[in-house]
Write a structure and sequence with these properties.
Shape: globular
Largest sheet: 5 strands, parallel
CATH superfamily of the largest domain: HAD superfamily/HAD-like
Radius of gyration: 18 Å
Structural class: alpha/beta
CATH class of the largest domain: Alpha Beta
Distance between the termini: 7 Å
Number of domains: 2
Strand content: 5-15%
Order of helices and strands: EHHHHHHEHEHHEHEH
Helix content: 40-55%
Length: 206
């Protein structure tokens, strides 16, 4: 029986377009190919092993001279799009029956921007307050799709995997969650207004 729902953030609740960040950096003089070669830097940033200053300084070394911190932050945040209000209503409805949790691969720059946005849209702290637990990769030091990351979240939340449904838009993250013993639902497309009904049907069939 499902008692808990663990949500991904970007691509499930918050709309994303990673290509916008690649295009923004390309305009600054950094090709997507070169940016993709620095996955270790991005992984370190998302697991809290790299500070904001170190992240920006590392990018400045591979960007044209004179590229500012503001330009880098704006390019990095370009992928962050909108947060449809109806998804908050879905969470509120689900919260009446299930415990809700959030687990996102993210970083200080992104989550600062997202929370400022949601505070302005829904009210201060209203978004995070919808969840019984919120877990960001750069805070817990582990990221999806590592099995250890899911086990860490389950332990921190004091919940069982076999009682938890994980929703994510990444197939690799779904596979990691399954290996950790969670039920899963792959969100192939942005959540539609009828997603609540689809989700409830799926939950009652688990």
């Amino acid at each position: 029986m499902i008692k808990n729902i663990l949500f991904d953030l970007g691509g499930v609740l918050l709309n994303l377009d990673q290509n916008k960040t690649f295009h923004a950096f390309k305009k600054l003089g950094l090709s997507p190919e070169v940016l993709s070669e620095h996955t270790n830097l991005l992984n370190d940033f998302e697991t809290g092993n790299c500070t904001v200053n170190s992240f920006i300084e590392s990018l400045q070394k591979i960007l044209p001279n004179g590229t500012t911190e503001v330009q880098i932050i704006e390019a990095w945040n370009a992928m962050l799009l909108d947060f449809p209000a109806f998804r908050i209503e879905i969470l509120k409805a689900l919260k009446k029956t299930y415990k809700l949790y959030l687990f996102s691969n993210t970083n200080t720059i992104h989550i600062t921007e997202v929370l400022q946005y949601t505070d302005g849209l829904f009210g201060k702290n209203e978004f995070e307050n919808l969840f019984d637990g919120v877990y960001y990769s750069h805070v817990i030091g582990k990221r999806k799709p590592e099995v250890e990351a899911f086990e860490c979240v389950l332990n921190l939340a004091c919940i069982n995997g076999h009682e938890t449904l994980f929703i994510d838009d990444s197939e690799s993250n779904i596979q990691g969650a399954q290996k950790a013993g969670l039920h899963t639902l792959l969100a192939k497309h942005p959540i539609e207004p009828n997603f609540e009904q689809v989700l409830i049907q799926m939950l009652t069939g688990v």
